[in-house]
Amino acid sequence: MDGLGIRFGGNHAVRDVSAALPAGQITAIIGPNGAGKSTFFNLISGFYVPTSGRIRFQGEDITRLKTHQVVGRGIARTFQTTTIYKELSVLDGVMIGHRVRTRAGLLDALLRTGRERRDEEGSRDGAMAALARVGLADQAARPAGALTQEGQKRVGIAMALASNPKLLLLDEPAAGMNPEETVRLMALIRDLVSGGLTVALVEHKMSLVMGLADHILVLHHGQKIAQGTPAQVSRDPAVIEAYLGGHAHGGQMGQATAPAAPTGAPHA
Fold this sequence. Notes:
Layout: E1 2-8, E2 11-17, E3 26-30, H1 37-44, E4 52-54, E5 56-57, E6 60-61, H2 67-73, E7 75-77, H3 90-98, H4 106-111, H5 114-133, H6 149-161, E8 167-171, H7 179-194, E9 198-202, H8 206-212, E10 215-220, E11 223-228, H9 230-235, H10 237-246
Helix pairs in contact: 3-5, 3-6, 5-6
């Protein structure tokens, strides 16, 4: 991202952000409420078109591509709320995520052409592979809405994985999860990255961020105020001020695995 920004009327939701997401690693985007984190994700994934700056992915300028084109380039995302088709089987819902990789059109579907049948078989295989990656292959035939909250979160991740992404954007993946579920989610994300995926996540649970992220990008009022390792970011005076400025002492900024922060720094 080079000088990335978007304005809604007179409000700069994201302003002049230049940053990189290192391949094969986990980058966490954090910041106080209203910092512009979800808007930043919406820009990367093509839901919003920036009013300034550009986005390059694997050497290609994708700044003005439509959402389905961004997905086709290898960027997939999940959302803050679990967005799955609860009335469908787990398998059928995840197959939808693979459709971006198919070629059959409406006429093929109506006539049940050979291309449509091949695409459907490919989508089924791709969906089952994605479900295996998130540990839900044995739940494929169940209605998605019958799964636990953790299970539904995994279905959402599988839908994104079914598009065969290189970069996976996770928007508050641990929202609504208890500590045990959060630990299992962290293990899943580590496994995905070990398998060659690049992950960027927005998350408020600082124990997850500090225990999982290789790099952290900090936004405040739509601007980047820090970027670095968890240890570096937890000591940055601008980051400490941003969190203390919007929260009481003992706010969101945490110290799960990073060394202790200086006296006066907030703790989870």
